[in-house]
């Protein structure tokens, strides 16, 4: 493939990556029949996907009970609103899941991690379930932040907080040491939107406070 063709297929840009998973999923499903597990996952994934898509995100993949979504890959590019939409989606998903029983029986708790940074985007793959659509260390950072998030919270990296500070209210948390990082990561808990553009609150299920 020529350099020109590669440039058309891939581009470098900034995105926000969101990871969400169910707290204690392994122990929850350990004794359940596989059909019940499937029903639980179907309800969970459907809720997450609906809110992510309404908020302008793209579902990259499912990994067990985790969902990875990407914001800012569209033609409009990346900006504070794309990152803020990702944070609002995290808050909205948790609110939606608090109000339902998965598979008609199970109330679940979740944790969400978001990170913002530069990636290489595979333009052709930048769609729902376009596996490996992005490449960059921000993916592993978001996954690790999600793993360190307190239950039922949305936590973000310093870059996400900095770009969305006028749009989202945050609480600073103690820095965390994560595997593979030579220094502690600053951590912020998203509390609520501070200003929501017209229409976004209705789409994502979160209103301005």
From TrEMBL:
Gene3D superfamilies listed in its UniProt record: Nucleotide cyclase
Domain Guanylate cyclase: 16-146
GO biological process annotation, one example: cyclic nucleotide biosynthetic process
One Gene Ontology molecular-function label: adenylate cyclase activity
Domain of life of the source: Bacteria
InterPro entries, alphabetized: A/G_cyclase, Adenylyl/Guanylyl_Cyclase_3/4, Nucleotide_cyclase
Entry-linked SMART domains: CYCc
PROSITE patterns registered for this protein in UniProt: GUANYLATE_CYCLASE_2 (PS50125)
Family to which the UniProt record says this protein belongs: Belongs to the adenylyl cyclase class-3 family.
Identification of the protein by name: Guanylate cyclase domain-containing protein
């Amino acid at each position: 493939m020529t350099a020109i063709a590669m440039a058309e297929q891939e581009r470098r840009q900034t995105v926000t990556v969101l990871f969400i998973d169910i707290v204690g999923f392994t122990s929850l499903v350990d004794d359940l029949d596989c059909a019940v597990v499937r029903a639980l996952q179907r309800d969970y994934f459907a809720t997450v996907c609906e809110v992510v898509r309404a908020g302008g995100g793209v579902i990259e993949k499912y990994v067990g009970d985790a969902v990875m979504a990407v914001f800012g890959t569209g033609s409009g590019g990346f900006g504070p609103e794309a990152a803020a939409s990702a944070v609002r989606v995290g808050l909205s998903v948790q609110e939606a899941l608090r109000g339902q029983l998965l598979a008609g029986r199970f109330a679940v708790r979740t944790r969400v991690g978001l990170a913002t940074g530069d990636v290489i985007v595979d333009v052709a793959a930048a769609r729902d379930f376009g596996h490996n659509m992005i490449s960059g260390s921000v993916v592993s950072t978001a996954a690790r932040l999600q793993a360190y998030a307190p239950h039922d919270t949305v936590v973000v990296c310093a870059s996400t907080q900095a770009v969305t500070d006028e749009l989202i209210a945050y609480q600073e948390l103690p820095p965390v040491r994560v595997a593979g990082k030579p220094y502690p990561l600053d951590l912020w808990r998203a509390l609520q939107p501070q200003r929501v553009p017209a229409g976004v609150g209705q789409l994502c299920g979160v209103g301005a406070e």
